[in-house]
RNA sequence: GUCUCCUUCGUCUAGCGGUUAGGACACCGGGUUUUCAUCCCGGCAACACGGGUUCAACUCCCGUAGGAGAUACCA
């Protein structure tokens, strides 16, 4: 059987990391099995729909480098791939169930629905529709119609018996029909389908073979099976993925930290790190391997390596992956990624000069091992493009020295500056080490005042390299500024 | 409340009847080092509990507890 899978997001918000992981698993599964990956937009909730959300969806996957084989933007044999453009199809199918007596019109007002829900919860009963309209007489229906009430169409869930849903991961899941959502709405009064109808109809029509989606959908799966049966269709193969949780074990949400791929992107995470990390949430390859490129995953992904238990999203481990992938970049690649960040943070102007860009490129070896996210570059490199901000004079004084000693160190360092640019790292170090010995201080103590003078911080990229990039003149003036600060 | 699912170090996980229960992140030490980082070495740390089945259970079965998800004219 040929594999056809889909990602079917609802454009109501930014692409959530959990949803994206589901999309990725579908995509990898399709690739690994030479199948098709379909994108379908489930925009049936007009109230929550947003254009920005749709744009974010496209931006996110473009950034991740993931393409679908069929979708709204590229078409395909089962177009359209946007549910709002398929209304007639859903209506037709709802009408069919209505005609066959498998669904019915419901005229209940929202007020009445609210009321029964309140009563039910007050009496500690399961909230749900009371099936009031399930057995309306023809006369009653005509009367409501005459009043101009727009009905919804509800599905007749069997009152007895049970339904079994098979899941590749979870096995057979049985449910008594009486425990299934009592007669869910299929077609809303605005004429749009609900998720249940549209999803089932489209998955069947688009010949979806496997449904890989998060476990939060398990409870509605038996209902979907019932729907397939009502239409006389065979359900696809289900595989409910473990969910992604926050550190407290609850569904990952805003209060745990970033949740959208966009936020991670803006924070300076690399797509390969996000993909790699997220793929290891609920899936593993073996007992040791943890680095996977997209193309590795496109080859290696299998359902039988999936885990059942929910996974907690660990921001620290993502950081680690990101640092790893940053270090894997060539200096050229990294510079290209860092320049936009530098511009955004005002370290570089909007239209930097070629010399400035060259400087950024030259600085990459100095900061590559020091970045966890691309955004770290701004803090690390700002000193190259602007005078250090005000810092307290005490910063210049190492623990082992006093102000006088620090001042002396700066003076000696200034004297060694000439010709530093042409010296190798080793020569420069030998030179300064010799001076430190002469002064009877440790190299670190000689260098620390200079480091602060030059970069404005005790934490910085390697000093000699930094000085070389900054230039002797600027270095000298910063050292002088520091010395005068100390003499105040 | 009801239904369903889940349960190995703090976290992600390996394990598929017999292992000193392995790896990674985090954390804590140590080394390299010019600060920070990188890198290297070492350490800490887990089979939720109780019954079975079996010569033998982390592994199989049944309970219990805990956790999560779902209970919409949202998906």
Summary tags:
488 residues, mainly alpha, Rossmann fold, Helicase, Ruva Protein, domain 3, two-stranded parallel sheet, 9% strand, RNA-binding
Provide a brief overview of the structure.
By secondary structure, this protein is mainly alpha-helical. 47% of the residues lie in helices and 9% in strands.
Write a structural description.
By secondary structure, the protein is mainly alpha-helical. It folds into 4 domains: 4-83 and 244-312, HUPs (Rossmann fold, 3-Layer(aba) Sandwich), CATH 3.40.50.620; 86-241, Rossmann fold; 331-385, Helicase, Ruva Protein, domain 3 (Orthogonal Bundle), CATH 1.10.8; 393-487, Arc Repressor Mutant, subunit A, CATH 1.10.10.350. Helices cover 47% and strands 9% of the residues. It contains 19 helices and 11 strands. The chain has helices at 17-32, 51-64, 87-99, 110-122, 138-146, 195-205, 221-231, 261-266, 271-279, 294-300, 315-328, 331-344, 354-367, 376-385, 403-416, 425-439, 443-455, 463-470, 472-487, and strands at 4-7, 36-39, 103-106, 152-155, 162-167, 171-176, 185-187, 210-214, 237-241, 244-245, 311-312. The strands form 5 sheets. A 3-stranded antiparallel β-sheet has the order 3-4-7. It binds one RNA strand of 75 nucleotides through helix 4, strand 6, helix 6, strand 11 and helix 11.
């Amino acid at each position: 059987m040929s594999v056809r899978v889909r990602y079917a997001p609802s454009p109501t918000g930014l692409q959530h990391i959990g949803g994206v992981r589901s999309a990725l698993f579908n995509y990898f599964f399709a690739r690994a099995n030479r199948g098709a990956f379909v994108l379908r937009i489930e925009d049936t909730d007009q109230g929550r729909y947003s254009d920005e959300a749709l744009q974010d969806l496209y931006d996110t996957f473009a950034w991740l480098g993931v393409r679908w084989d069929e979708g709204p933007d590229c078409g395909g044999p089962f177009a359209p791939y946007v549910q709002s453009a398929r209304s007639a199809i859903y209506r037709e199918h709802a009408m069919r169930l209505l005609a066959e007596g498998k669904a019915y019109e419901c005229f209940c007002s929202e007020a009445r629905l609210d009321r029964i829900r309140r009563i039910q919860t007050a009496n500690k009963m399961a909230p749900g529709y009371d099936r009031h309209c399930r057995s309306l007489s023809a006369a009653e229906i005509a009367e409501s119609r005459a009043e101009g009430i727009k009905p919804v169409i509800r599905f007749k869930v069997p009152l007895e018996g049970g339904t079994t849903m098979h899941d590749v991961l979870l096995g057979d899941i049985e449910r008594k029909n009486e425990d299934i959502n009592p007669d869910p709405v299929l077609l809303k009064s605005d004429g749009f389908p609900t998720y249940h109808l549209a999803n089932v109809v489209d998955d069947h029509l688009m010949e979806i073979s496997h449904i890989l989606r998060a476990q939060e959908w398990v409870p509605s799966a038996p209902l979907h099976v019932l729907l397939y049966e009502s239409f006389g269709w065979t359900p696809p193969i289900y595989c409910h993925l473990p969910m992604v949780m926050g550190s407290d074990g609850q569904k990952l949400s805003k209060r745990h930290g970033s949740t959208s791929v966009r936020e991670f992107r803006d924070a300076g995470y690399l797509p390969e790190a996000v993909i790699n990390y997220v793929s290891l949430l609920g899936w593993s390859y073996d007992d040791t391997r943890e680095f996977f490129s997209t193309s590795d995953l496109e080859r290696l992904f299998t359902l039988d390596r999936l885990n059942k238990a929910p996974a907690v999203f660990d921001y620290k481990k993502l950081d680690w992956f990101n640092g790893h992938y940053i270090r894997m970049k060539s200096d050229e690649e990294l510079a290209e990624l860092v320049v936009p960040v530098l511009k955004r943070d005002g370290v570089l102007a909007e239209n930097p000069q070629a010399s400035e860009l060259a400087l950024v490129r030259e600085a990459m070896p100095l900061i590559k091992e020091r970045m966890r996210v691309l955004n770290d570059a701004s803090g690390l490199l700002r000193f190259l493009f602007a005078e250090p901000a005000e810092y307290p004079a005490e910063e210049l004084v190492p623990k082992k020295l006093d102000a006088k000693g620090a001042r002396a160190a700066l003076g000696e360092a200034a004297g060694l500056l000439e010709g530093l640019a042409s010296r190798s790292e080793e020569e420069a170090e030998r030179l300064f080490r010799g001076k430190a010995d002469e002064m009877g201080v440790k190299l670190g103590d000689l260098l620390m005042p200079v480091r602060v003078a030059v970069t404005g911080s005790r934490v910085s990229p390697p000093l000699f390299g930094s000085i070389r990039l900054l230039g002797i003149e600027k270095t000298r003036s910063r050292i002088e500024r520091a010395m005068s600060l100390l003499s105040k």
